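Q: what does this look like with tryptophan bound?
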Amino acid sequence: MPRIFSGIQPSGELHIGNYLGAVQNWVALQEQYESFFCIVDYHAITAPYAPDELRRRTREMATSLLASGLDPAKCAVFVQSRVPEHTELAWIFNTITPLGELERQVAFKEKAARQAQVMAGLLNYPVLQAADILLYLADSVPVGEDQVQHLELSRVIARNWNSRFAPEGEPYFPEPHPKLTPTRRIAGLDGQAKMSKSLGNTIGLLESSDEIWAKLRPAVTDPARVRKTDAGNPDNCPVVFGLHKAFSPAATVTEVDTNCRSAGWGCVDCKKVLLESMNAELAPVRARAQVLAEQPSLVDAALDAGVEKARAVAHGTIEHVRDRMGLA
Ligand code: AMP
Ligand code: TRP
């Protein structure tokens, strides 16, 4: 089976944008690939944070990933800082990464511009990401568009290491490629930007039906529909129609389209149908999360199994790397 690796930062509660844009795809991929999904806490500490909160969020992220359907029997779900080989390989890779490559990373420049003092860890963030991926000799990385430049750098690092330390014509590290998630950019509840934790326009993956309704009910729709009898255009309704496309069956999406254009349904009717579709998808996720919250040992067991699978592979890679590099 070909191998994939992906990572997610434990930097906030998982929202339905993350779920639809990334995690749902991982759940499908675990069937076809030997899969490693890593909660990257060493990456998270490159931004200001509180230790207790990090611990809680790491745990929450694990619960949400498992509740979403990542199955510890099929894939490895684990926490990065429990596999010390990640930081070991990152140090090694720092010695073969040109400084200029790091300084021109767009993500670095954007984050650095927001900090009063820029720490070295922020600059070296993509080196750790390359180590994450290459430690497992993964050649395919399911991520969003924003990670493409980081993966380019991972390929540079793989090539640099191979050319210095692998025998001619026998590269050791594969050059990892992004496996782009079919772009389903979920709009935030404000309809102004993409759904994002930092914008406060999210619906949390584990929110209850009532909580979701409290957010859906006032959500913006086509501004042309002032009264219930005004005909609308679903293309001018990115939030509610966008969520219908993500959650409702194709037949329902068609029905929504027709009834919006003919003013057959008012926006509240349409939102009620949406709530039903969302509950159909999310109720089982909430139920699994509930079970995991009541039996925390299930989460521990999943993370322990994940770390064991990860370390078995990571150990082999590091041994090989140390040997080729003349490290004792
Ligand atoms: P982030 O925490 O923003 O880095 O996102 C983690 C993952 O969720 C990435 O793979 C993103 O591409 C995906 N993602 C985040 N927000 C959205 C959104 N509004 N719509 C679709 N995918 C998203
Ligand atoms: N940088 C990624 C993000 O912000 C997270 C990440 C860390 C990652 N290591 C990774 C993603 C390795 C893919 C592969 O989303």
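The mean pLDDT is 96. The beta strands are 3-8, 34-39, 75-79, 140-143, 177-180.
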